[in-house]
Write a structure and sequence with these properties.
two-stranded antiparallel sheet, 8 strands, alpha/beta
Length: 215
């Protein structure tokens, strides 16, 4: 089996594990490809991933561990111009977009693994309490990495697999904070539409109230 397929299965099984038995079908679909010893290795890898995130997450620091693994495995799509923003630039963009708004919604319409959102949340450790984060991306693999990063850094919000330009929505996840019982819940296309738009005279409007957009 190709390493790319193994990585995708790891992402899917990890997100399923975070879903507290609300997304068992995803786990079973992936796990049936592996024997008992191989399944144990997935669990060991997830444990090591937690330790790696813990080692880089003190005093507002951060690193996109799962995104770096993605890049090191050469999984980014060069043909479509899929390159992840360096951490230093994410920190700069987050600092530039910092404003007097102390609560609200932060949306990245082309989120990748959500580095910009993580960078904003780490500017002030109260940000993750006061802001709801929304990640959107066309690449399902990136959305799964975003879900994992939301969990690792305790961000509350939504990850939505969609085409931001056409607004075609495929699926989504809601991520809760650890203080309220951290877990991930799959949400419907209709729920995603409600999150991204509001209906006014039967016409969708992008929610802009207290909303910043990071590119």
């Amino acid at each position: 089996m190709h390493i790319h397929n193994v990585f995708d299965d790891f992402l899917n099984m990890t997100v399923s594990a975070f879903s507290m038995k609300k997304d068992e079908e995803r786990y079973l679909k992936c796990s049936k490809k592996y024997n008992e010893n191989q399944i144990k290795l997935f669990g060991d890898t997830l444990g090591a991933l937690f330790l790696d995130y813990e080692s880089v997450s003190s005093d507002g620091e951060w690193d996109d561990i799962i995104g770096r693994i993605f890049e090191e495995l050469l999984l980014s799509n060069v043909k479509t111009g899929q390159f992840f923003t360096p951490k230093s630039l994410c920190d700069l963009v987050a600092a530039i977009t910092q404003s007097d708004i102390k609560e609200g919604t932060i949306n990245d319409p082309s989120s990748g693994s959500s580095r910009n959102l993580i960078a904003h949340s780490r500017l002030n450790l109260n940000n993750r309490f006061n802001f709801t984060y929304i990640a959107q991306d066309l690449d399902e693999r990136c959305c799964l990495m975003s879900v994992i990063n939301f969990v690792m850094y305790g961000l509350k919000g939504y990850v939505i697999h969609c085409d931001t330009i056409s607004m075609e929505i495929y699926k989504g996840w809601r991520i809760f904070m650890p203080e309220t019982g951290l877990f991930v819940v799959p949400i419907s296309v209709e729920d995603c539409e409600q999150i991204l738009t509001k209906k006014t005279d039967d016409k969708p409007e992008i929610q802009i109230n207290k909303q910043l957009t990071l590119f």
